[in-house]
Design goal:
inorganic pyrophosphatase (n-terminal core), Diaminopimelate Epimerase, Chain A, domain 1, 2 domains, globular, binds guanosine-5'-monophosphate, binds manganese (II) ion, DHH family phosphoesterase
Length: 334
């Protein structure tokens, strides 16, 4: 993979570009993709952003979000955009399988493939890119790429808002270890450019419906289990809870973090029966590596302190498997 700045000559004449991200995109996947979208459009390219699946309502305020094509519900439009694509940008994921049903179509493309990502162990299928696990967010990598290409004059309020949103959420509102001086310098630059950060916090965190809060209360009371001997807390959510509280895509985001707020807890797992499969989210504090854990036991991956995986067993069996895996790692959890 050649360094990202080597794409500069390619971007000098108008190209047909597709930008895509991981399925069920979060604010970093969507924010980095839309920042890239505005930047490339301003440079005169023909750009389409495709999301492999639908995405949470709390992202819909993002400038340009109304133009994102959902590969599942707008398949014809997405396939048309992919036809004859010259450059494919893959943002905020490290393996093509993270694009779900889009994967075979992306593999068939004859385009130049560019990766911009901060997850561990990327697949070796990209021509150009940056894979920087020390970056707090993919949005930050897009910001740095724009600077490296000498194009910082293109950073307007739309781009600033998208970059800030991705970084704010991936750093847990600027509290995780990844929140380096480099992050704060970028944010200072965005603020000097006129960004109003308060609006973005409200748009993302103060925009839920009542049912989501009631679901959180119900889950904390009834679905949480704490294993003090292994410093682990879990929450297992049956599909019937998702139906009962009428949860939408994105409504369970952030729930796993509550578990880590218990004194002494080092490993937190949120295990949700999504009906088609069981999804797992892992978070850790300190030196327990949940990327390795997710890869080893649940066909997943991610970052050192935040990862996810899946299981095709029932919810109960998945919880049993998790408990066994937790005991196998007892020493590392002390
Ligand atoms: P979340 O728990 O918020 O869904 O995901 C946490 C982190 O783990 C994210 O960086 C996400 O990209 C990654 N991740 C979540 N699920 C999976 C998965 O099934 N496979 C892989 N490789 N990574 C995942
Ligand atoms: Mn990210």
């Amino acid at each position: 993979m050649k360094p990202i700045e080597d794409i500069k000559p390619l971007l000098e004449s108008p190209k047909k570009v597709v930008i895509t991200m991981h399925q069920k995109p979060d604010a970093d996947a969507m924010g980095s993709s839309l920042a890239m979208f505005h930047y490339l459009r301003r440079k005169g390219h023909d750009v389409t952003v495709i999301s492999p699946t639908n995405f949470p309502d709390f992202l819909k305020w993002m400038p340009g979000c109304d133009q994102v094509v959902d590969f599942e519900s707008q398949n014809d439009k997405a396939m048309k955009a992919l036809e004859g694509t010259e450059i494919l940008f893959c943002l905020d994921f490290n393996a093509m399988s993270r694009t779900r049903n889009m994967e075979p179509h992306l593999e068939r493309l004859h385009s130049v493939k560019v990766l911009i990502d901060h997850h561990l162990e990327p697949q070796p299928v990209f021509d150009f890119g940056v894979s920087d696990t020390s970056a707090a967010s993919t949005a930050q990598l897009v910001y740095e790429m724009i600077y490296r290409l000498g194009d910082e004059h293109y950073i307007d309020n739309d781009i600033a808002q998208c970059i800030y949103a991705g970084t704010m959420t991936d750093t847990g509102s600027f509290r995780f270890a990844s929140t380096s001086a480099r992050v704060h310098r970028m944010v200072a630059d965005l603020l000097e450019r006129g960004l109003e950060h308060e609006y973005i916090h409200q748009a993302i965190y103060d925009n839920f419906l009542e049912n989501r809060l009631r679901f959180i209360g119900h889950s904390l009371l009834n679905r949480m289990e704490v294993f003090y001997e292994t410093n682990t807390a879990i929450m297992a959510i049956p599909y019937s809870d998702l139906k009962r509280f009428d949860l939408q895509t994105g409504d369970t985001e952030g729930l796993v973090n509550f578990l880590l707020s218990i004194q002494g807890i080092k490993l937190a797992a949120l295990i949700i029966d999504r009906n088609s499969e069981v999804k797992l989210s892992f978070r850790s504090k300190g030196n327990f590596d949940v990327n390795t854990f997710a890869r080893k036991y649940f066909e997943g991956g991610g970052h050192f302190n935040a990862s996810g995986g899946r299981s095709s067993d029932s919810l109960d069996r998945t919880v049993q498997r998790f408990i066994r895996a937790m005991h196998e790692n007892e020493d590392l959890l002390q």
